[in-house]
From TrEMBL:
<feature type="region of interest" description="Disordered">
    <location>
        <begin position="375"/>
        <end position="434"/>
    </location>
</feature>
<dbReference type="InterPro" id="IPR045006">
    <property type="entry name" value="CHLI-like"/>
</dbReference>
<dbReference type="Pfam" id="PF01078">
    <property type="entry name" value="Mg_chelatase"/>
</dbReference>
<feature type="compositionally biased region" description="Polar residues">
    <location>
        <begin position="423"/>
        <end position="434"/>
    </location>
</feature>
<dbReference type="GO" id="GO:0005524">
    <property type="term" value="F:ATP binding"/>
</dbReference>
<keyword id="KW-0547">Nucleotide-binding</keyword>
<feature type="domain" description="AAA+ ATPase">
    <location>
        <begin position="31"/>
        <end position="225"/>
    </location>
</feature>
<protein>
    <recommendedName>
        <fullName>Mg-protoporphyrin IX chelatase</fullName>
    </recommendedName>
</protein>
<dbReference type="Pfam" id="PF17863">
    <property type="entry name" value="AAA_lid_2"/>
</dbReference>
<dbReference type="InterPro" id="IPR003593">
    <property type="entry name" value="AAA+_ATPase"/>
</dbReference>
<keyword id="KW-0067">ATP-binding</keyword>
<comment type="similarity">
    <text>Belongs to the Mg-chelatase subunits D/I family.</text>
</comment>
<dbReference type="InterPro" id="IPR027417">
    <property type="entry name" value="P-loop_NTPase"/>
</dbReference>
<dbReference type="InterPro" id="IPR000523">
    <property type="entry name" value="Mg_chelatse_chII-like_cat_dom"/>
</dbReference>
<feature type="compositionally biased region" description="Polar residues">
    <location>
        <begin position="376"/>
        <end position="386"/>
    </location>
</feature>
<dbReference type="InterPro" id="IPR041628">
    <property type="entry name" value="ChlI/MoxR_AAA_lid"/>
</dbReference>
Amino acid sequence: MRSYYDLISHEGNRSLFTAIELSIASQVNRIPLHFHVEGLRGTGKTTVIRAARHILPPILRIKNCCYNCRPEAPHCPEHKGMSPEDIIRLGTELVPRPFLEISHSAKIGTVVGSIDLGKIIDSRHSVAALLPGTVPRAHRGIIFIDEINRLADTSPELVDVLLDMMGTKPGRVQIEETGLPTVELPVTVSIWAASNPDEDPGPLQQIRKQLSDRFDLRVQMERPLQSQTVRRILMQPRQEDILRTKSRELAVSDMKKVVFPSDILDVLAAIYIDFEIESIRAVEALELSATLLAMRNGRKTVILDDVAEVVPLVFGHRLDPVTIERIQQYVKRLALQNGWEADNTDSLGNPVAAERGKEKNSWLKRLWQSACKKFSNGNGSPASSGKNREQGEGQGLEGPSTRPAAAEMVAPPKQAIPLEQLPSDQLVSVDSEP
């Protein structure tokens, strides 16, 4: 298995790395974040996902609890209701965060749970007991389902389990066996799924739209487009070198420390209404993903750029490409209009302006200084012509000759240069003749 941090990130798979890291951060913060990656076979979807199991932060659980009970809040049939003193006597242990898979041959009993036959046939102490399935054992961790479109086509009973579990956050699973009382367990599990939409039975959205909508993010995996990228992939360390490399955990912060401004919440509400979004889960996923992205980037406040970046991931399986582009451009325009007011702070609360903000503030400052210098009447303030003064105060520097309707439009002789790249002495120019 290749190390996650040794895998090559390129333009075709970068969104998958983002989705994985956002989902891990969300899971550590006790909120499941489900994603589904689609792409051609051989593009490395499964390789990247399975490599991510080695960067999962561990969990602290009650010792030997197969349900991964939190010591401060036990939930399983064996430990629920126990006092803190009893938990202390049992002890706790630090174990790897669960990463389990559901295959196409899985049965409902192996996924949900069934009767523990081993305890029933024990001649010394026969007892009817439950054997937890994949879902209860994955509590506080990850379940990976490869080729989920095939599973949705051939195993509708398993899909019903996923729908029930992914319908709320945290989810729930119900274990039913004849002769035993029904057991309902809360589960905080993130579902990672992959599929090849160009192969039978087709895209998940067409097979089971209800299940497709349960995924917070949809990632489109593409093949690398640059020959240099392929060369770097071929030069990756060999298996024996990777086995000697110690895995690193993903550093995760506390999501509760990230502020989601109310005015950006208004933007999300406007997107839901104005673009006629069908599922409320979409804007909930938008809020969660933008918060996680801000946290990953070391900021304490969500900005509109975070929202714009996750729009394609959140709406990729819910809307058509044209509408997604319209939403993203809408958010980006708002970000440009209000960029200088964004609270760009690092994890310590220190102001750290983004590069685009620095560039914008820089050329705006230079533009103002240059204007004051060239239009100055000697005391540092912009000069007004006698004609402008006769027009009266309140019209500013704008005269009839500067109004678009009266101006003669002439095409520029050469390609325009962005303002940020212009020298200071060229930001403002005046006619030499009166």
